[in-house]
Design a protein that fits this description.
The complex is a heterodimer of chains A (574) and B (163).
Chain A (H helix, E strand, L loop, with lengths): L1 E4 H11 L4 E5 L5 H8 L5 E4 L3 H15 L3 E5 L3 H5 L1 H9 L4 E7 L15 H5 L5 E4 L6 H13 L5 E7 L8 E4 L18 H13 L3 E5 L1 H5 L3 H11 L3 E3 L14 E4 L6 H9 L2 E5 L5 H4 L10 E6 L13 E4 L2 H14 L6 H17 L14 H11 L5 E4 L3 H9 L8 E2 L10 H11 L5 E6 L10 H7 L4 E6 L4 H10 L15 H7 L3 E5 L2 H12 L7 E6 L9 E2 L8 E2 L7
Parallel strand pairs in A: 2-3, 2-4, 4-5, 5-7, 6-7, 9-10, 9-12, 10-11, 12-13, 13-14, 15-16, 15-17, 17-18, 18-20, 19-20
Antiparallel strand pairs in A: 1-8, 21-22
Chain B lengths: L1 E9 L4 H11 L6 E6 L5 E9 L2 H13 L3 E6 L5 E12 L3 H12 L3 E5 L3 E8 L1 H11 L4 E6 L3 E4 L8
Antiparallel strand pairs in B: 1-3, 1-4, 2-3, 5-7, 5-8, 5-9, 6-7
Classes of the chains: A alpha/beta (574), B alpha+beta (163).
Chain lengths: 574, 163
């Protein structure tokens, strides 16, 4: 058997797992490992400028591919800088393996230089974590980490490695396990057939049924089954912020997003539905509005791989615990066997009602009168320029909601955003992680002048590794969503939501070796888009889009109200 | 309502921290907690008493089950069970009190495990309510120090919590 050091074992194990890129930042406790990287070329390392960005890069890659992203950082501040990134992945159930250096075993607990209790600090935001006690544990631990991160409800896993586990001349026998068994970990493989049959009956009996699908459909790679089910039953579908793209947004049966900034028709249809089929969604507070007023007439079926998501905030009538793809397969099989068909008359009047709702609002917004671009218009311009085919990586705030509403996602894994944690600074590094792995695809970071400054330093990484993402910055000079809440709930007192002293974005981009374009008005937008994907195709372009600072995101649900209680514009309420 | 959750846990460093952390991070209540290895040294058995509405208890068991180190768990209060707690209580035992403490201790089937001229240390085993009744009977003026293990529990009959 081969003898390897812990550092070599780690790199080899990552290679065994098919890892092509590791995103990270070296430091004292990981120098042996970085030296092991130096002697091989199978696993490549991308040096970021801040460890948080490494985590978001890995996360973006994972969201686009379904494969786990890998992060490697040193102990102490290196590790703590990844915390926001780990929490972001945890909240959205993204598979990730985070390798953190640790001080020498004998120094742990002594407040040594760059020591921090990473196991403790990360504990509430990981699916699991491991601390290495002997170099020979490394291969099996890596195998376990990848297994846990990617199976069941996915999530981030931390491996904390003290420096003395990786000493170059401390060699041990290496073999990479083919399989791993963890006796206390057995994610569900299949839903309960009896429950599934009951669910199908309930669905077929519905007069006003609706499907409410979430990120679990994308994570569970079940979008094909979802599409078949929606079409076979001729039911409307609404998708959560995390679920966009599983069902094509441009299709007639799609009502768009639901929830706080969901469409009028989606929220109305949910409120009036008599049967709701929730698939891989978790009845988040940004979806349900007040839980005691949630969908009063509905019987609810809930499919989720995580039992703790079921009846957590909303009691459901038929819970089904299992992987979304296999449960949907079973539903489709049962539907195929049954002679019963959905009630066509009831569905027709349900669709008529929905079409009425569509007419009332239908995503309308006031077009610019002053010549200043509306943010919605900017997103629509981006959608047209990219023909709806780009990876859109969003930051957090108004621009995120506008992108979710106006960029029509027809495919899964293309809409990349921090939906659960709401991490500003996520979009740009996430876009980098995707562009690096899909160099021929259009990858756009939709951001604002607030969010982009939270990881702006990564423009340097982009130049070093040739990562020509497009930064599409909706610049309204304000922290737009904060301002919107202040307008609506604090009588317009804009406390600390105005950003003064912004840089000259064009010069900033140029000083990092990239291209900057300033956009004011629709004509310049069209030109900028043409340049972005034309003559500057292979360059990072920072597009600074000046947009109307007065604009709000609508619809917006009224706090403590039901799904149907919404503001539709500054003056119009349901 | 009060629940006794009995957990079979991997006997590994950090496992206890995950369980306790889960309760803290999700604002669940822990009334008592005991943990010790079982006859199988790779496993620990933990007993937690907690209380809350059914929805919260359901979440507690589901969230505990998600922890990788939790091998199995059962809510003992869902069925017939035996629960015991051990208490060591140091009480003033001088003059006329001395005989009275002894009598009360006998009534509760306690044992006096340490004696000085003025102090008895009583060992008492039983349900939580029995221990509380004893504390009540002795009265606060006599009690110098109390230490309790927290509840351990096991299902009645042939049901077992094992691999």
């Amino acid at each position: 058997m081969e003898l390897l050091s812990g550092g070599e074992m780690l790199v080899r194990s990552l290679n065994e797992e098919g890892v092509e890129y590791v995103y990270g930042y070296p430091g004292g406790s990981l120098l042996h490992v970085y030296d092991a990287f130096y002697n091989q070329s199978a696993v490549k390392h991308v040096l970021v400028r801040h460890e948080q960005a490494a985590a978001h890069m890995a996360d973006g890659y994972a969201r686009a591919t379904g494969k786990p992203g890998v992060v490697m950082v040193t102990s102490g501040p290196g590790a703590t800088n990844t915390i926001t990134g780990i929490a972001t992945a945890f909240t959205d159930s993204i598979p990730m393996v985070v390798i953190t250096g640790q001080v020498m075993s004998h120094l742990i607990g002594d407040d040594a230089f760059q020591e921090t209790d990473m196991m403790g600090i990360s504990r509430p935001i990981v699916k699991h974590s491991f601390s290495i006690k002997h170099p020979s544990e490394i291969p099996e631990t890596v195998k376990k980490a990848f297994h846990i991160a990617t199976t069941g409800r996915p999530g981030p896993v931390v491996i904390d490695i003290p420096k003395d586990m990786t000493i170059p001349n401390d060699r041990h026998e290496y073999s990479y396990p083919k399989k791993v068994k963890i006796r206390s970990y057995a994610p569900p493989q299949k839903g309960h057939t009896g429950q599934i049959r009951k669910a199908v009956e309930m669905l077929l009996e519905g007069k006003r049924p609706i499907i409410y699908s979430g990120g679990g459909v994308i994570l569970g790679k079940a979008h094909e089954q979802l599409r078949t089910l929606v079409r076979d039953l001729n039911v409307p579908i609404t998708q959560t912020l995390m679920g966009l793209g599983a069902y094509p947004a441009t299709d007639r049966q799609s009502l768009g997003m639901l929830g706080m900034h969901g469409t009028y028709e989606a929220n109305m249809a949910m409120h009036h539905a008599d049967v709701i089929l929730a698939i891989g969604a978790r009845f988040d507070d940004r979806v349900t509005n007040a839980t005691n007023k949630f969908c009063p007439d509905a019987q609810i079926i809930h499919i989720d791989i995580d039992p703790s998501s079921i009846s957590k905030t909303i009691d459901v009538d038929i819970p089904i615990v299992g992987p979304v793809d296999s449960v949907l397969d079973e539903i489709l099989n049962i539907l195929g066997e049954l002679k019963t068909k959905p009630d066509a008359d009831a569905l027709e009047s349900w669709w008529n009602q929905i079409d009425e709702w569509r007419k009332r609002h239908g995503g309308k917004y006031d077009k610019n009168e002053s010549g200043v671009l509306k943010p919605q218009e900017a997103i629509e311009g981006l959608w047209e320029a990219t023909k709806g085919n780009a990876y859109i990586c969003s930051d957090v705030g108004q621009h995120q909601m506008f992108a979710a509403q106006y960029y029509k996602f027809d495919e899964p894994n293309k809409w990349i955003n921090s939906g659960g944690l709401g991490t500003m600074g996520f979009g740009f590094p996430a876009a980098m992680g995707i562009k690096l792995n899909f160099p021929d695809e259009m990858v756009v970071c939709v951001t604002g002048e607030g969010s982009i400054q939270m990881n702006i330093q990564e423009m340097s990484t982009c130049l070093q590794y040739g990562i020509p993402v497009k930064i599409f910055c909706l610049n309204n000079g304000y922290l737009g969503m904060v301002r919107q809440w202040q307008d609506m709930n604090y009588e317009g007192r804009h406390s600390s939501s105005y950003m003064e002293s912004l840089p000259d974005w064009g010069k900033l981009a140029e000083s990092y070796g990239h291209v900057g374009i300033n956009v004011e008005g629709k004509e310049q937008l069209d030109q900028a888009m043409a340049d972005c994907f034309g003559k500057y195709k292979d360059r990072l372009v920072f597009v600074n889009v000046v947009v109307d600072p007065e604009e709000h995101v609508y619809p917006m649900q009224v706090p403590t109200g039901a799904m149907r209680d919404m503001w539709l514009s500054k003056t119009e309420r349901t | 309502m009060r629940h006794i959750i009995s957990i079979l846990l991997e006997n590994e460093p950090g496992a206890l921290a995950r369980v306790v952390g889960l309760f803290a991070q999700r604002s669940y209540n822990i009334e008592t907690l005991t943990v010790a290895p079982t006859e199988d040294p790779t496993l620990s058995r933990m007993t937690i008493t907690t209380s809350g509405p059914d929805r919260v208890i359901e979440q507690i068991t589901k969230q505990l089950n998600k922890l990788i180190e939790v091998v199995k768990l059962v809510d003992l209060t869902e069925g017939e069970h035996v629960e015991r707690e051990l208490m060591l209580i140091k009480v003033k035992a001088a003059g006329a009190q001395r005989a009275e403490i002894k009598r009360t201790s006998d009534i509760f089937r306690g044992q006096i495990v340490d004696v000085t001229a003025n102090v008895y240390t009583v060992q008492l085993t039983g349900s939580t309510s029995k221990l509380e009744a004893f504390i009540e009977a002795i009265g606060p003026n006599c009690i110098l120090e109390t230490v309790r293990t927290g509840v351990s529990g096991i299902a009645r009959g042939e049901k077992t919590l094992s691999l």
